[in-house]
Amino acid sequence: MLSLDAFRGLTVAAMIMVNNAGDWSHIYAPLGHAEWNGWTPTDLIFPFFLFIVGVSITFALGGIKQKGDTGDAARKIVRRGLTLFALGLFLNFFPKFDPTNVRILGVLQRIGIVYIVCSFVFLRTDVRGQRLLAGALLLGYYLLMTVVPVPGVGYPNLEPTTNLSAWLDNLVLTPAHVYKSTKVWDPEGILSTLPAIATGLLGVLTGTWLRGNRPVAEKIAWLFSAGVLIAIAGLFADALFPINKKIWTSSFVLLTGGLAMLGLATCYWLIDVVGPERPLYRRLSLPFVAYGVNAITVFFMSGLIPRIMNLVKVPGPDGGEVGLIEYLYRSFIAPFFSSPYNASLAGALTFVVIWGVILWIMYRRNIIVKV
């Protein structure tokens, strides 16, 4: 499925764009996360990627599941998941490497955990079991967050620092090892990983459906229908359990899972079904395919290289010393825009284009870095 690589690449390119604003004090609202309840386009990116992880699992492990010999696969699954976790932990350590004050969890860590759990669930259960587990995770998380009294608070609530998920992060991780911007809880925290696994399982179920023997038109029609219904269910569930990316609410899982199905179905139709007859669609998708086949590599390096560059201090345009990234932005991008918001967006897009050129060269030379 070329469309799966393209959809993954589009998601990662968007992730890199929103993670690398030219000026964080001037970003357009859709390119930032919702402050608490609600959602923006940026809030869709990470759940889309976890959904794609689930879809990819069915293609990578489908043959192994049919053969029934999962011993060697289990070792590879654990090794890959732990490697992803270690890469994320390295990014958090760099450049200070201070174990007393480092964030333990993060984006790559959550991807690693979701990958391991969803892979084993896929290998050991059938579609019915996967549906039941996804439903149980979403219902169970809803009950935990809305019914269980929070120790030290005395009542269940969904406020940023006093909800059950925040309490558990603060208890287990302690303030020294959570996201620095929040100080007492982590947006990729312990308890909210449960519904994130459900996001991955929605991808697993979608991948199983796409790998089936039904006619292509039937696959796409049902996938579009399911996507619409699940997204609408998420919007209705918002009244009981508000859509919230930071604590990954069950309504957020339904909304983003449904929209991810619609996105993948659209890519599948345009690239894999119509694409052979209209080569332009495939040609237009190739830059995103280049992103998609090296998705983890570009995400890791796009996080590491700016940190290295900012260790290099140079005289700033207005005097004083600034990091190299800020110097380049303020010297070669910001002066060409009257609006600081447009300049900030241009800085982010420049970052995406530079990586796009690098990844295109790698793709043309068939250089794919596997984790």
TrEMBL record:
It comes from the Bacteria. Residues 3-212 form the Heparan-alpha-glucosaminide N-acetyltransferase catalytic domain. Coiled coil: none annotated. Pfam families: HGSNAT_cat. The keyword Membrane applies. Keywords: Membrane, Transmembrane, Transmembrane helix. The keyword Transmembrane applies. This is DUF1624 domain-containing protein. It comes from Rudanella paleaurantiibacter. The lineage of its organism: Bacteria, Pseudomonadati, Bacteroidota, Cytophagia, Cytophagales.
